[in-house]
Amino acid sequence: MGKTKIGSMLAILLVPFMMLFAGMGTTASADDNSLQKIKDAGVLKVATSPDYPPFEFRATINGKSEDVGMDIEVAKQIAKDLGVKLKIMNMDFGSTLVAVQTGKVDMAITGVNPTEERRQSVDFSDIYYNGGQSFLIQKKDAKKYKSAKALHGAKIGTQTGSLQQTLSKKYFSDSTLSSMEKTPNLVFALKSGKLDAVGVETPVAATYVENNKDLAMVNAGYTLDKNETGAAVAFAKGSDSLAAAVNKSIAKIQKHHLTDDYLKTAAKYMKDNTKDTSMMHYWKYFYNGFLNTTLIAVVAVIFGILLGILLVLMKLSAWKVLSWPATAYIEIVRGTPMMVQVLLVYFGLGAIINLPALLAGIIAVALNSAAYVAEIIRGGINSLDKGQKEAAQSIGLNKVDTMRFVILPQAFKNIWPSLGNEFISVVKESSIVSIIGVSDLIYQLNVVRADTYRAVAPIVVVMVIYFLMTFTLTRLLNHFERKMNHD
């Protein structure tokens, strides 16, 4: 599998800095204790991205959403053989290998291909599954595209940065090639006639065909190196003892052909998922996403305002030892994408302090919001007439009391609409935390799309939820604005 997600390249580029920030190195010590550490902890932490059935996805079991799929079964077998508990840590695929490198997890099981390029950053186990490559096509075009050879000159889509993208460039250079970040988007483009074929792994193609009566598949016919195109487990560099133990489990899996059983189990869960693909059936997913999105936005804004006040007071200070750091912080945060900041907090700071994904997301969003709030407050303070300060001083108020009782209250009244806009922006922009596995609305959107094979309906539901959130918030903010103006 060569799947990738938004931010994967940024994540890889950040790894050296994250390692330096965490005081870590990419090279393991001479004394490899990777296996012993897991046994001492009694827990095997595994990173995965549950939006790619049948390898990894989510299903409702006894009313509870759980990770299932072939890769999850492989992880369970490894944990069982090691005699430890299994802890699955969900995140965006582009973050899984970074999580391995920075020590957030012990291994990544995401059906990832052990290419030479990836071997420069992480170590891999033996191949535990090789499913081959195929193309998804519309069933009505089955006679037209009886084999992959007929696709030369056609419109072919693949996932951005994937193995399939590399192969299509090599074998179908005479075709019109395009790529997207998400496989469901590619399938929707195929079904809507924007693409003639979509390159995916054979098990993925078979899954879509089984659950979509309008689709068919043809073998890609590639000549492949199985050592680079099969699925393997990823470890941090130098984790020889852990890799050896995992390879023993993989040998057992292959000897008893357990991947066949794992795929049958995955097929059962997929069939259960598609019995009822109505959005009401998945209301718990959207509800949980709504709760997490709301929590992130509210907490981030509260701490963002508090930190923003501190930053603006520092920036307006006559002491350069305070004003310079505040100015530098504001400029750096405003000059870099929030996605990079989320990755840095989770993998950089998280390598020193083991932060849960949700907490790391809240911290990153709050730190980002604080920089913008600081500038909003500064603008509000500067908009006040200088006579306000002089009047306060004339009645004996010191600088602190003047700022506290005279300047800030009036400034907040003036900037209330801007602060409201910032709150609304945080609600929407906090969706970026899904890349580290925070189950917000966007994360749940991708899970539902993967489970139901419906491309549009989940998007519409999430759009409506976001609209209702921001519309309600806007009305509430306007109410308080009118009240302040009346007062």
Please give a quick description of this structure:
By secondary structure, the chain is of the alpha/beta class. It has helices spanning 8-21, 34-41, 70-82, 93-101, 116-119, 163-171, 183-191, 202-211, 226-229, 240-255, 258-273, 283-315, 320-334, 338-352, 357-382, 386-394, 399-429, 441-452, 457-486, and strands spanning 43-48, 57-61, 64-68, 85-90, 107-108, 123-124, 133-138, 155-159, 176-180, 197-201, 215-219, 234-235. Helices cover 58% and strands 11% of the residues.
Pick out its properties.
single chain; 487 residues; alpha/beta; D-Maltodextrin-Binding Protein, domain 2; MetI-like fold; 5-stranded mixed β-sheet; 3-stranded parallel β-sheet; 19 helices; 58% helix; 11% strand; globular; disordered N terminus
Description:
The chain has 487 residues and is an alpha/beta fold. It has helices at 8-21, 34-41, 70-82, 93-101, 116-119, 163-171, 183-191, 202-211, 226-229, 240-255, 258-273, 283-315, 320-334, 338-352, 357-382, 386-394, 399-429, 441-452, 457-486; strands at residues 43-48, 57-61, 64-68, 85-90, 107-108, 123-124, 133-138, 155-159, 176-180, 197-201, 215-219, 234-235. The strands form 4 sheets. Strands 9-8-10-7-11 form a 5-stranded mixed β-sheet, with helices on both faces. A 3-stranded parallel β-sheet has the order 4-1-5, sandwiched between helices. Helix 12 crosses helix 15 (357-382), helix 13 (320-334) crosses helix 15 (357-382) and helix 14 (338-352) crosses helix 15. The radius of gyration is 26 Å and the shape is globular.
